[in-house]
Design a protein that fits this description.
This protein has one domain. Helices cover 22% and strands 37% of the residues. It contains six helices and ten strands. Strand 1 and strand 2 form a beta hairpin. It holds the Pfam family DUF617. This is Protein MIZU-KUSSEI.
């Protein structure tokens, strides 16, 4: 049932049935919008008197004293969710799908069957939190945190662990080198069971040194699955 659901749900998400009859097509990413950059209002220059220039200079000096907060940085990465039918889900982040060394590899406490069950409603948010009061976790990079507390759609689900890509994980990534976007099953690809996977483009947002997130980018004609993974250095949810 789980494999059938993945085939029915994920494949239409990345390969819509209604395709154009042209030989080439352009896929627009939903989360990236540059309209605000292309349509900037024109700037105007007006002459000012010496008194008004003095006032404006003092105003600008006061405005310069107030430092604006840094804008979040955004980039696109390749995200792969995979796991055995009866095992835990893994989340792999890569900048190059041909590489077998992921920039981030996490093992979630969520089983593959539970993940599919949560995704049936079209919304999946996985929040990973670490305790900022621990000295060894207070200032280290978020991707170096070894253990996370996991919340799946608001419910505490256990603990996730950062992993290094072992021989079996590298073998899976080698098998999936030809897959850019899609979902499917690899026979006995990881362990002794079939391995189910979903690969897609994710928007990587770095809000600050204490927050990062990954958001699934859906094609325009896809069913609109919302899937996000958050890395947070916060103790707000650790007492639940």
């Amino acid at each position: 049932m789980t494999i059938d659901f993945l085939r029915r749900f994920f494949l239409p998400c990345f390969f819509p049935s209604s395709t154009a009859n042209t030989t080439t097509s352009t896929t627009t990413k939903k989360r990236f919008s540059t309209s605000s950059l292309r349509h900037r209002p024109p700037t105007t220059t007006t002459a000012t008197s010496p008194s008004s220039s003095t006032t404006s200079s003092s105003t600008s000096s006061r405005a310069a004293a107030t430092v604006a907060p840094p804008r979040p940085s955004k980039s696109m990465v390749i995200g792969t969710i995979f796991g055995n039918r009866g095992g835990h889900v893994w989340f792999c982040v890569q900048h190059d799908r041909l590489s077998t060394k992921p920039s981030l590899l996490l093992e979630f406490p969520i089983s593959t069957n539970d993940l599919v069950r949560e995704m049936r409603n079209g919304l999946l948010r996985i929040a990973l939190e670490c305790n900022p009061h621990r000295p060894d976790l207070a200032r280290c990079p978020l991707r170096s945190v070894p253990v996370w507390t996991v919340f799946c759609n608001g419910r505490k689900s256990g603990f996730a662990a950062r992993r290094r890509a072992g021989e079996r994980v590298r073998s899976v990534l080698k098998t999936m080198r030809c897959v850019s976007v899609g979902a499917g099953v690899i026979p006995a690809g990881f362990g002794s069971e079939e391995l189910m996977y979903m690969r897609a483009n994710f928007e990587h947002v770095v809000g600050s040194a204490d927050s990062e997130s990954f958001h699934l980018i859906n094609p325009d004609e896809g069913p609109g699955q919302e899937l996000s993974v958050f890395l947070l250095r916060s103790g707000l949810g650790l007492d639940r």
